[in-house]
Amino acid sequence: MTLIRWQPAPLQTEMNRLFGSLFDSPTLATRRFSPPVDLVENETQYVLRADLPGLHAQDVKIEFDHDVLTISGERRSEHESSENGYRRVERATGSFARALTLPAGVEASKIEASFIDGVLEVTVPKPEQSKPHLVAINATVPSAIEGSQAEPATEPEPAAA
Length: 161
Prior knowledge:
single chain, Immunoglobulin-like, four-stranded antiparallel sheet, 1 helix, 9% helix
């Protein structure tokens, strides 16, 4: 094992790193929108709830492909206010997408979705669990064992008392 001597970064380099990350971060207006999503599982289904304030059902798209459920859409909003001699306009736009991998076997035709008061709820029925299948074993008596003649199998006779 090789030991490497720790060299503290010069103070100027550390200060540049801290202030650089502070000023290079996106502002609230340009930050990417990522809706919060809750996924709840019960005995028969998965229920996904996404908070999408200010959106309408036509702004949201739900796709299910290769066991991946994707919720995507675009948010467009503009707020304007005028008071005390100044005018303020805020615009928040941007697209979003959230993808969740579901277990194999989910039937796409049984997925349901509703959109009420800015909350999207997607219900996904769980796939049927595979059940164990018992395989019957056929026991056969070999017809010949190297040079000897096999006798047909017979049931043993009950012992005399």
